Amino acid sequence: MTLVLVDADGALLGALPPVAVEVPWWTSVADVVAAARARHGVDVHVLRLLHADRPSQPGGHVTYLAQVFEPPAVPLAPADVDLAPHPLRAPYAVPGGPAASVAWALAAAGRDDLTAVQERTWNLSMIWHLDAAGGPVAWLKQVPRMFAHEPVVLALVDGFAPGLVPTVLSAAAPGRMLLAHVPGEDRYGADADFCAAVAADWHPAQVHFAGRVDELLAAGVPDRRFDADRFARVAEPFLDGIDGLAALLDGLPARFAAIRACGLPDTLVHGDLHPGNVRADGDTRVIVDWGDATVAHPAYDILRLAEGLDEPGKVLHAWAQRWRAELPGTDPERAVDLIRPVAELHAAAAYADFLDRIEPAERPYHEADVPARLSAAAAAAVPWSRD
Question: CB–CB of 147/124 below 8 Å?
């Protein structure tokens, strides 16, 4: 990675020599900050991605913009960077932005023994952990305007199911949250038994919020119930290149009607419920990262949770049994089968929303996801009976 440095006023200083870091995910900047300090003796706040030499992560040669607080003692190379303001730039992606948010978090925590460590920065969030005695005690998360509903959702879910989500210690504009530390580890790659347990944890809350859709919408949770026109707008540039996509779109009204006939209600949907968004410590599981939360069909979450499992049927069957017990006469299995291509269209539309709301330099984070999800939608649109 290469760091192009600016000072607190945003004046361009130059670029540090490239440094290799182990973690290949561009959003993860803790190694970047540590490498700048270890190799060059420079303390930095990473502001945003400037350039990548490949169309998507992981790996490659990545260039970031970073702020320094003291003139670096190492020679800097000339850098040709457009530093003009951009209307879609996040408030934490400008000089002074991270420092202001960290100061807010430290004041909100009300402690003078905390050290802030930058963990992640990209167009969807900035995350720092606040440490004391060698370990985190709280987390600063800042999100762009499109995720402004996240602290509201956390409060709503915590009010019904305490402990299922991180506790919001404080929240303030623009998009800042101070969250209590959640012990454990993110369970990327967890097996079917773990995912089934997460689904069981989440089910009572989805039943609860199914009767409170108006409350969710009034609180600012985005409405992502079935919308054929929205999907068509996202798919239109790709219709000639993806076989079967046009036919899928043409059949959406009938497919939506068949899904509704299965009887499952719209409710609060996490939106990205994979095991990596669950922190576990023993038998305790906490669902994190609620920026993608919407009002939508509950099958979206169970399909995401079962994605990539060796035994997805174990998770899907238990989920269907719970809904059938809750709402006799419903057909959850058929709903899942019918909604598979719709879930992919839903994901493609979410990525398209990201692209519409971020500055061009950050588009590599999401650009490949839209056609990939549309292709997956067409592939999942197997023939089905309308009876």
Answer: yes
